[in-house]
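Researcher: Here's my situation. A collaborator sent me these components and asked whether they could plausibly form a single complex. I don't have experimental data yet, so a predicted model of the whole assembly would be a useful starting point for our discussion.
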Amino acid sequence: MKKKLFITRKFPAHIVEPLEEFYDIEQWPEEELVIPREKLLEAVAHCEVLWVTLEDLVDDELLSHAPNLKLVTNLAVGFNNIDIPALRKYGVMATNTPGVLTNSTADLVFGLLLATARRIPESERYLRAGKWKSWYPMQLVGKDVSHTTIGIIGMGRIGQAVARRAIGFDMKVLYHNRRRRHEAEEMYGFKYASLEELLQQSDFVVIMTPYNKDTVGLIGEQELALMRDDAVLINASRGGIIDEVALYETLNKGKLWAVGLDVFEYEPIAMDHPLLTLPNVVALPHIGSASIKARTDMLMLNYNALAAYGQGKAISNRID
Ligand code: DGY
């Protein structure tokens, strides 16, 4: 008898169909709509393997509804949607997608740096609104990115890829991380800083740290107050790392040059969210890894884990 696999979203058929060799597959038929929680709890009752996106919460409640579950594959590198202690308690393995979205996410961070500093979305809105009447010296002037200081909070794979890109812009790189990156310091001249120093000294603060109990609300009122009045804040990790109320209040007081957000505490962000009323907030719908190559590679990493499990082979990219 084939193992039962449940997939919480409609993924590309050419990636899913070959798995029919190993699995009896059921799939939520919607590409865009998240499976309602009660349907997910029903669906997991019989499955041995579950393929989820970052929007599906795999917690104690779900696991208690899934007596046969052995493996969860997560279509993301971040796994804050998975309760790891609960997984251990139920003896379930999990895999994620490290490595393959590093460059696409670091590229997007630089897109946000340039978009915020040089007011690119605002300038485009200006043109489309028919406001462009002439060229004049101080029209839509922004901040330079080159020859400034970038402070990266979270120096994992993606943080380091952002830092390497910053060298090309002649930026001084400060970083804050749980562990020192001595090799990167020696090789590229990146400088370790305390969180406080980094916030005080950076022109651009970039959040790349994972989202967990230690980083919830890491950037709140006090931390925002430490930043330079004309600094830019970028977040391409997870929304809950920034206190959005404090951020709105800070921006509303005229502090900070701009903010670039690819992630929000609640996604999709509500259209009446106060942050969306501010012209110097560049907001994107969580597209850090949204290149054709990165998304295909992510699907393929999950596919490989599923194919390996289906054949009784060792699984790579296990979350410990
Ligand atoms: C991840 O993989 O964690 C990203 O946020 C989604 O691409």
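Model: Some features of this prediction you could bring to your collaborator: Residues 292-310 form the longest helix (19 residues). The chain has a mean pLDDT of 98.
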